[in-house]
Amino acid sequence: MTDGAMWLDGNAIGGLLQELFGTDLTRAPRTCQSCGTVHPIGAHRLYRGAGLVLRCPACGDLALRIVALPDGHVLHLEGSWRIEILAPNR
Amino acid sequence: MDRARIVWQFATVRELVEETAHAKTVRLDLPDWPGHAAGQHVDVRLTAEDGYQTERSYSIASAPEQAGLALTVERIDDGEVSPYLVDELRSGDELELRGPIGGHFIWRIADGGPLLLVAGGSGLVPLMSMLRHRSAQGSAVDTRLLLSARSLIDVLYRDELAMLGRGDGLAVHQTLTRDRPAGWPGFARRVDAEMLVSVGPTPAHRPRIFICGPTAFVEQAADLLVEIGHDPAAIRAERFGPTGG
């Protein structure tokens, strides 16, 4: 299929998010600051360019920008994220 | 949620299996693998001699019950990673990967059904892990698979699908969009609303729906499913775009 659509799912950066947060975020629900809908991060739209941009699947507003630097990453988060992080040694 | 540190590790290639002219299954042995759920993926990292690194995500094809880990990789001709995996990788080689990744696009027996799985091309891979998991658990949960491929020679796991399709509760539907053998009994067009109604289950049965394929295929299938009355919240999707490879 010829594919003009250039975006993927939040699932595609599940590995990177798990590396940065120490827990799976693809199930984490996020409430959009713009349209108020709640979707898991794995169901958001991922755009790859110079950095990574995650957008609300309902309205397209920004959810996350990630810029890779030589020595790490810079993250800008938008909206309300619910992230469960269990204590170590559990 | 599991507290899961995610670390890169080296797997050893145990076996390569040619699935189609463009796709191979890579069977791997891992020294330290925590187990996975059907639908999860791994990140594979290649490092060039000059230190340049590149990563791609690949869905896990094997069931959690199977020993080792199997990935099925389709060659994207101008890709950076898949041509190496499909053409160059040999049994005994090491491959760097991390995982398992993802808790959204997964299905476990305990989640129940009915299930509707919709695959475009090699989007079948994570759905095959679900079917293998279902079969390994001896489950007869009502499951409908709709697989869209260009032609029969592009269909992954053809013999295994035929075998699984003879078991209880699983209906395998295929549509071939480009070439059909003479007397082809399946569908012969792109996925449309009428086809999805015919495959079922009806929205009233509230199936769990998993769609995997190229982005445009997934968009189209998801829109059609909502159009015929399925709950958008019951639809989980995994897209692979033109930037893959």
In summary, what is this structure?
The complex is a heterodimer of chains A (90) and B (245). Chain A is mainly β and 90 residues long. Chain A contains one helix and eight strands.
Describe the protein's architecture and organization.
The complex is a heterodimer of chains A (90) and B (245). Chain A has 90 residues and is mainly beta. Chain A is 9% helix and 37% strand. Chain A has one helix at 14-21; strands spanning 7-9, 29-31, 38-40, 45-48, 52-55, 62-69, 72-77, 80-81. In chain A, the strands form 2 sheets. Chain A has a 5-stranded antiparallel β-sheet with strand order 1-4-5-6-7, with no helix packed on it. A 3-stranded antiparallel β-sheet of chain A has the order 3-2-8, with no helix packed on it. The mean pLDDT of chain A is 90. By secondary structure, chain B is α/β, with parallel strands linked by helices. Chain B folds into 2 domains: 9-101, Beta Barrel (Elongation Factor Tu (Ef-tu), domain 3), CATH 2.40.30; 109-240, Nucleotide-binding domain of ferredoxin-NADP reductase (FNR) module (Rossmann fold, 3-Layer(aba) Sandwich), CATH 3.40.50. In chain B, 19% of the residues lie in helices and 32% in strands. Chain B is built from 5 helices and 11 strands, in the order βββββαββαβαβαβαβ. In chain B, the strands form 2 sheets. Chain B has a 6-stranded antiparallel β-sheet. Chain B has a 5-stranded parallel β-sheet with strand order 9-8-7-10-11, sandwiched between helices. In chain B, strand 1 and strand 2 form a beta hairpin. The two termini of chain B are 30 Å apart. At the A-B interface, strand 1 and helix 1 of A face strand 3, strand 6, helix 5 and strand 11 of B.
